[in-house]
């Protein structure tokens, strides 16, 4: 089952043709999308757009780049939104040291707050981690994130780090950069148990090789499934079935039947 476990479909780049774009996705066999709302702005924009669509679920949280927004009031907003019946995860949250969008101590405080919220709400976590693998694993362990598990989204680290995350009951999610000749994560992709791998696009970002430089859409996961299948030497259909099952299990979702 084709499930895009991480997308930002509220972004203005979809304003012109959002409905048509989504229709093309459903027609191509996509069964579900998890829309990630990760700061005040995307929470305000994302929920009204998609909460009526039975094929779209939500993750809600505070991104490390939004960590300077983290205070009691924002935490209360995220917590309130997390009770929405279509919210299936807390995040994305974590560390981003690639650029200094938010102060590092604020990133850590915000990340801890999100893990505690996920444990209170008994929801899995969506982790965003860039250039911060040790700190990410340290905070996950210190805050007992293994109690809820979740997914390491846009995974860009090595196999050893992936296996450590799996020990904490996390899945590993690959975006369309697995289709890039120079950044395909082949060793990690081939070294993981198939029942821990998820597919995502992070749309509108990270388009597959086929449409590099353009806007990505959830259909991009088909490219990723093919690339992952080639790296593991199995049929693409097997990757699609396994990753779909993994997503349903982790997020507790049951997508409606696809188009006839
Ligand atoms: Zn992210
Ligand atoms: Zn994202």
Helix count, DSSP H or I runs of 4 or more residues: 9
Largest sheet: 8 strands, parallel
> What share of residues are in beta strands?
15-25%
Order of helices and strands: EHEHEHEHEHEHEHEHH
CATH class: Alpha Beta
Assigned CATH architecture: Alpha-Beta Barrel
* Chemical compounds bound to the protein: zinc ion
Radius of gyration: 17 Å
- Strand order, largest beta sheet: 1-2-3-4-5-6-7-8
Distance between the termini: 15 Å
- What overall geometry do the principal axes of the alpha carbons give? globular
Tally of individual domains: 1
Roughly what percent helix? 25-40%
The average pLDDT value, as a whole number, equals 96
By CATH, the superfamily comes out as Metal-dependent hydrolases
